[in-house]
Amino acid sequence: MSTFSFLLDLVADVWAVVQYVLVGRYLWAALVLILLGQSSVLLQLFSWLWLTADPTELHHLQPSRRFLALLHVLQLGYLYRCLHGMHKGLSMCYQEVPSECDLAYADFLSLDISMLRLFESFLEATPQLTLVLAIVLQTGQAEYYQWTQLNLDGFGISSSFLGISWSLLDYHRSLRTCLPSKPRLGRSSSVIYFLWNLLLLGPRICAIALFSSVFPYCVALHFLSLWLVLLFWVWLQGTKFMPDSNGEWLYRVTVALILYFSWFNVSGGRTRGRAIIHLLFILIDSVLLVTTSWVIYGSWLPNGHSLPMWVTIGSACFFLGLVLRTVYYLWLHPSCSWEPDLVDGTLRLLPSKRPPKLIYNRRATRLAEDFFAKAKARAVLTQEVQLNGVL
User: Fold this and answer.
1) Helix-helix angle 126-139:187-214, to 10 degrees
2) Which of 61, 197, 230, 303 fits a disulfide with 259 by CB distance 3.0 to 4.6 angstroms?
3) Distance (Å, rounded) from C-alpha 194 to C-alpha 189?
4) Three-state secondary-structure class, residue 349
5) What is the rounded (10 degree) CA torsion for 130, 135, 137, 139?
6) pLDDT in tens, 50-97
7) Sign of CA dihedral 381, 386, 388, 391
């Protein structure tokens, strides 16, 4: 699915650029190319830095480093990862009993692909979706070539919203597989997690698109100012994700861009306070964007729709998403399951049984430990309990 979605996005982007050029919209074509280019370059950089940081014996079946470097220079590194992971998964389908090492390696590959897909969603898909909405609001019409997925009115924008929310869900589900003490996300939890991300992300993108349509030359200044604030906030949290300092700043730059649209945890400790601060920050900024656009532009959009009506719908979506997010973390968020066990007459708390991985993804495991800090603390406590033999 990642491979198909990547190729479909690429074809749709090239098609949109060609159509923009044919109708004389050179600025729009240039913006799409810029978004596509910077997203691809950053993805290849992340992919290459991760490959060089991995132990050499881990990827012993892959081509030589020179060939992999050439693929990344040609902007094919992410596509190669998708194809390599798909080939590894299909090869295990022909094995009667896949080895634990093969399963662990396939899981290792899928974690990196999931994280790269999340980066691609916010580096390219989300800004381009904002651009398309801004064009529609500015021109008052939707041309058939403006949709990013298929040439059907409305379907491209809807599928982009769904795809971005799905990448957040896929990333969250992948993180939970890194920690043996964290159970996997169930169906109901996954549905609620997907919905609250969709409902909170939608109004944010629409607010930025509305402001962009009214002040097309001011949105860059708005993004840069907020991005610098968010980058400073990420730096204060002392992230340690990449293998070197230069790569770490690349990661912080990317995370700050994600935080401009959605919540993304980057450090350990209790996340509730940071999540609330970020939510209030984004909410206040979105309200200011919509209010400024309303005062300057008026209450009627070029397509004849009432702006207050869309503001009401967006507000309802935001608060519904907030309710679903609260419901998820209060009742549906899977917690570490602890079972009482009597050993030598002493009560001990043991984590749920899940065999340790033969190969673990250090990058994803680090993020998982930071995201699920409570589970990490309990795991450390459990180790101490087992060593001491007494609770």
Assistant:
1) 50
2) 230
3) 8
4) strand
5) 180
6) 988 888 777 777 788 889 999 999 999 999 998 888 888 888 888 878
7) positive
* One-letter amino acid of 260: Y
Report which of 194, 191, 186, 181 is spatially closest to residue 372, judged by C-alpha positions. 181
Q: What whole-number distance in Å separates Cα of residue 71 and Cα of residue 353?
A: 41
d(CA 361, CA 121): 21
Cα angle value 274/166/146 (rounded, 5°):
110
* Residue found by looking up tokens 């902007």 in the block: 75
Compute the distance between CA of residue 334 and CA of residue 322 in angstroms, rounded to an integer: 19
d(CA 223, CA 103): 42
Contact (Cβ atoms closer than 8 angstroms) between residue 374 and residue 124 = no
pLDDT of residue 336: 41
- Alpha carbon 261 to chain centroid distance? 10
Question: Is the Cβ–Cβ distance between 192 and 163 less than 8 Å?
Answer: no
Pinpoint the alpha helices (H) of the chain.
Answer: 2-22, 26-53, 65-73, 77-93, 100-120, 126-139, 155-176, 187-214, 219-236, 245-261, 272-297, 307-327, 362-371, 373-388
* 346-351 and 338-343 strand pairing: antiparallel
Q: Could you tell me the two tokens for 344? A: 């030598």
* Residue 250 clears pLDDT 90, i.e. is over it: yes
Q: Are 132 and 191 in contact (CB under 8 A)?
A: no
Tens of pLDDT along 176-188?
777 666 667 778 8
Report the chain's terminal Cα–Cα distance, integer Å. Answer: 47
Q: Is there a contact between 254 and 42 (Cβ–Cβ < 8 Å)?
A: yes
For residues 120 and 174, what is the distance between their CA atoms, to the nearest angstrom? 16
For 332, the enclosing helix (H) or strand (E) is none
Cα separation, 352 vs 327, in Å, equals 24
DSSP string, 136-200: HHHHS---GGG-SSSSSTTHHHHHHHHHHHHHHHHHHHHHHTT-TTSPPP-HHHHHHHHHHHHHH
Cα(293)–Cα(230) distance, rounded to whole angstroms?
23
* Structure-block tokens of residue 290: 């919509």
